[in-house]
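re: the backbone from monday

yeah here it is again, tokenized this time
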């Protein structure tokens, strides 16, 4: 079934209206006409998760999109038809092919609109670049921002209630004094011991909006570094927010997304149970968890994707389109690292000499 095509013409001049970051409106870039996006009265729905069968949902984007697949990194981005792009927004590769947008994908339930525009994203990038340690002194001056584009990236969010039983061996420190003779002198020392006791307990928790990036484009570690996102600010999906913007379709399927979310939740539960073991230390912690009320939704979150050139190489940077938090790769100055190591070594020698 073909998607229903929606267009957003300017009422004054007929040009395309595009979403304006930081607001709730579409704007004409030619005559300046602005049109408010009406706030949806629909609630954002959390859908029950079922590994065997997902409920029937609306599919596609709900608007006309042009699909571009990168043959280098595998990401598939969907552009507004008015955007002419010959490179992948994630890796910058020119090896892209146009294809028909998939109409079978689960439509986003909600999104976080971009909170700021490209000039402010560029400012965030510059502040990040100038704050880096152990980088070439001329990095800020000599680097060139090759491209900077805003793109809505797909995420899954999961909610779940958990009931966990934990048990471990709790260790309690106690001390004894030992006496020994050395060089004709009697010396004593305080020796630490551990008394082990069995411990167990119950831990109940609710996890709200556990995020899983469903993109194959940006590196996972860099994306994780720009979190968190304030998902309480999510707004019901409206294709108007995509007008004039790129959006990536998810490549991590729902079942795989839940597997990643569960691993993350399991780690959080284990850490929480670990903190509940009494005593001074513990060992052999075992945690068994039961999950209930698992729900999910598909959302789009705003990222500014940047690449800068330095010394003939390209480095990728990602900016959180809601908070401005930046993460990415940048060249190191091995001269500065070596000098810092030498200084630290000299300080250590001085400390040891004074202590002796």
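seq for it, each position gets an aa:
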């Amino acid at each position: 079934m073909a998607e229903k095509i929606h267009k957003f013409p300017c009422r004054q001049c007929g040009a395309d209206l595009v979403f304006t970051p930081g607001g709730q409106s579409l704007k004409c870039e030619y005559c300046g006409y602005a049109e408010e996006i009406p706030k949806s009265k629909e609630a954002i729905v959390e859908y029950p998760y079922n590994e065997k069968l997902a409920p029937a949902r609306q599919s596609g984007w709900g608007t006309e999109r042009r699909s571009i697949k990168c043959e280098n990194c595998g990401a598939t981005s969907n552009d507004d038809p008015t955007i002419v792009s010959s490179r992948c927004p994630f890796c910058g590769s020119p090896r892209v092919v146009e294809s028909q947008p998939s109409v079978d994908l689960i439509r986003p339930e909600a999104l976080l609109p971009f909170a700021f525009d490209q000039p402010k994203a560029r400012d965030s990038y510059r502040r990040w670049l100038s704050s880096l340690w152990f980088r070439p002194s001329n990095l800020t001056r000599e680097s060139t921002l090759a491209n900077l584009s805003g793109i809505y990236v797909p995420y899954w969010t999961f909610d779940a209630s958990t009931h966990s039983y934990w048990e471990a061996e709790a260790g309690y420190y106690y001390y004894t004094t030992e006496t020994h003779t050395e060089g004709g002198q009697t010396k004593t020392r305080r020796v630490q011991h551990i008394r082990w006791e069995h411990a167990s307990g119950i831990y109940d928790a609710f996890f709200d909006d556990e995020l899983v990036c469903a993109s194959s484009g940006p590196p996972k570690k860099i994306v994780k570094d720009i979190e968190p996102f304030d998902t309480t600010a999510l707004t019901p999906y409206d294709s108007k927010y995509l007008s004039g913007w790129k959006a990536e379709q998810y490549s991590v399927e729902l079942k795989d997304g839940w597997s990643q979310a569960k691993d993350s939740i399991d780690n959080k539960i284990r850490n929480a149970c670990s903190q509940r073991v009494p005593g001074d230390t513990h060992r052999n912690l075992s945690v068994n968890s039961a999950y209930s009320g698992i729900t999910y939704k598909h959302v789009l979150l705003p990222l500014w994707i940047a690449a800068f050139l330095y010394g003939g190489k390209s480095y990728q940077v990602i900016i959180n389109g809601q908070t401005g938090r930046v993460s990415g790769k940048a060249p190191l100055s091995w001269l500065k690292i070596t000098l810092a190591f030498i200084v630290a070594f000299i300080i250590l020698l001085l400390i040891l000499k004074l202590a002796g």
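Confidence is low (pLDDT under 50) at residues 1-6. The longest strand covers residues 144-182.
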